[in-house]
Write the structure tokens for this entry.
Amino acid sequence: MRPYELLALGGPTASGKSQLACLLAERIGGEIISVDSMAVYRHMDIGTAKPKDCPIKHHLVDVVEPGDYFDAKLFEELAQKAIQEIKSKGKLPILCGGTYLYFQVLLYGLAPTPEPDWSLRERLYSVVKKKGSEFLHRKLRAIDPLYAQKVHPRDARRIVRALEVFLQTGKPFSSFHKWQDARYKFLGFYITRPWESLSKRIEERVEKMFQEGLVQEVEKLMNMGFERFLTSAQAIGYKELVPYFKGEVSLEEAKAQIIKNTKEYAKRQIRWFRRQGWVEIDLDRLSLESAVELILSKLFAGDEPEQVVENYKQEQGYY
């Protein structure tokens, strides 16, 4: 009997966590739940690096249209259903992704927030249109500095939702986040690489996306009427190409901006995962197969995470 209900594999963009999750799921009979705020959207395949060659079933991929409302609370609900479905088959749920807010919400929960007030939301969006999301971010910083630190000043969707909840309840949005004990007995792993290596992998990934047709994918999405969604702060890899189609920047400038924004996001991911105290796996030091063995040694042996890492390093001659 497994001592854990699920596994969590988190880490920055391009660290190799998807390949590791696939190999691990094959070994132990698991299914993967994507923890990626962009992979939930259909028609956005290349820019989100959705897994193509993994035979394992992935949940929470391609579940809504671009522009449809999707937030952490909805992710929480769908992920909980997926966990129960996977467990009912006698398989192990494996959470894999880099959207740290979604990990936080699923593992620790959110207090119930009020239903959307569409009239209020529309008024807030009108302010964004007239004065910019940075203006509302300053307002958010005054009433909820904790949440404002986690939200980019151009992330209008999250800023508007936080202000909407505050205006409805008089409580800061951060007060609805629970940070107590985890709701699941889970084993967490943080996939990492030295920054120089990760930075190079990000550059190579972006180059590969362009070769695979990212420009054409963005053009198709714009023709489908999703330009407003693509320009949101969260749509890294897509929003940077919109100015290219408007003739405002060159293709090389757009590519350079994608790389820059992706690296900045990776740094935020690294900071969050490092704070969690999960077992760190450096995929520049370990092969994917060795990393799977390390995870299995913890999953079935029940040793403390730190001791597993130390034992493995000693066995492999790292000291």
Remarks:
- Residues 315-319 have pLDDT under 50 and may be disordered.
